[in-house]
Amino acid sequence: LEVILTTTIDKLGKTGDVVKVAPGHFRNHLMPKMLAVPNLDKFAILVREQRKLYQHEEEVVVKQVTKEDNDARLQEERLKQYQAAAKRLDNALLVLRRFISTGNELRTPVTKDEIVSEVARQLNITIHPENLHLQSPLASLGEFELPLRLPQDI
Q1: Residue 4 pairs with which residues in a beta bridge?
Q2: CA 38 to chain CA centroid, nearest Å
Q3: What is the predicted pLDDT for the residue at 65?
Q4: Cα atoms in the Cβ-side hemisphere of radius 13 Å centred on 119
Q5: Backbone angles phi, psi at 3, to 5 degrees
Q6: 8-12 long-range CB contacts below 8 Å, 24 or more apart?
Q7: What is the pLDDT of residue 95?
Q8: Could you tell me the strand order of the sheet in which 18-20 lies?
Q9: How far apart are CA 140 and CA 98, in angstroms?
Q10: Stronger pLDDT, 65 or 118, i.e. the higher one
Q11: Burial group, residue 133, by CB count within 10 angstroms (0-12, 13-18, 19+)
């Protein structure tokens, strides 16, 4: 049985296509849900008129994205993410707990790798150890300000 599809159906066809289906499938499934109509002249004219009315909605303008445009957009997004992370790191307070031995001395000094892992854990920001400027491991109690080496555009 030839029918005209009123909606796009996977594995069957697009709207307005004339396809062959089993009579039972049309009678029990497609027709009750108004997914297809019989292939008669009056229905064909009706479907054609509807396509003319609604065709502008179906048209999709596709802009071809070149690799350069895509790369530039990705770099711009990364730069925004880096700037947001730098802003969060600017006044961030990182708390590390350590055992102390005598006075203000720590039993085990805090290394650059531990600071990087704590920044990732507490602030959800990944920084590379080479960007953190730490001359020697932190061996005493107190508050420390640690400079980061970041690109100038950030």
Answers
A1: 18, 37
A2: 44
A3: 61
A4: 23
A5: -130, 160
A6: 9/35
A7: 79
A8: 18-20, 2-5, 36-38
A9: 10
A10: 118
A11: exposed
Which residues contact residue 83 at a Cβ distance below 8 angstroms, ignoring those fewer than 6 apart? 154
Find tokens 């062959």 and name the residue: 20
Q: pLDDT tens digits for 79-98?
A: 888 888 888 877 777 877 77
Q: Which H, E and C letters describe 79-129, residue by residue?
A: HHHHHHHHHHHHCCCCCCCCCECCCCEEEEEECHHHHHHHHHHHHCCCCCH
What is the rounded distance in angstroms from the CA atom of residue 141 to the CA atom of residue 116?
Answer: 18
The structural domains of the chain, ordered by start, are 2-79 (3.40.5.10), 92-140 (3.10.430.100)
pLDDT at 27: 92
